[in-house]
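Input record (one chain):
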Amino acid sequence: MTGFLVQGGSPPNLSVTTDKIVDDAVTLAKMAPGTDGNLITYDASGNPAAVATGSSGEVLTSAGAGAPPTFSALSTTTTGPDSIQTITSTSTWTRPTGVVKVMVYVVGGGAGGGGIASANCSGGGGGGGLSIKIIDVSSISTVACTIGAGGAGGVGASAGAVGGTSSFASHCSATGGVAGVTSTGGGAIGGVGSGGDFNSYGGTGNQGGETGGVGSGTGGHSFFAGGAAGKGSAQAGSNAVGYGGGGSGAASTGASLNGGNGFAGVILVMEYK
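The corresponding structure, as predicted from the sequence alone:
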């Protein structure tokens, strides 16, 4: 080594070790130049490495052990839908621009409550069934939608009418509730969904009370609405007021009274981009 005379021994150790550096003695001026905006990290071998410069508004994201972190745009993804369509009549759903998936809720129509023509109480109609399904619509432009009608209440000594079936084309569907009957104890079951990721029955319409016209059966509920309230002595049935709800039965002390009407079904389309 030029400039040193070694006599009878090993050359001196001239390496720079941490014990030879005074604490806080290395200033920024002593560090090697880098790129504006870069950060320093350590790689899997423990060696220093530079993190590439990010763009304005980006955040630093860890890639876990063995890989350097990187800058990336802050995610603006939301957990809710980008838009919602409520379909209340038979029609066609058209995919909005950019929408790639939908979650559909299909509810059948509520059934009508039973009528009565004697000192008796009739039962309520069943609520519409439910089907829920997530569908990839990236290659679909339109879907035919059918909305099941609400069943009419029974006239006099007759049962009500069943609720209609709602469907989102062939993807999934839900039947309407079963009609309330014209006798004591005549409750009716709800409709049921099919083809969905989740399918369920609508609520059962309650049976009528004891003879003598002391209380009719309430209508069955749906996923979105309750059924019509039961009636007391000498009253016609109540109409349902919410999607898929069943109409209530009538309570008579002898006169001819009609049951309440069920409410039509509905399709709710939650749209995601």
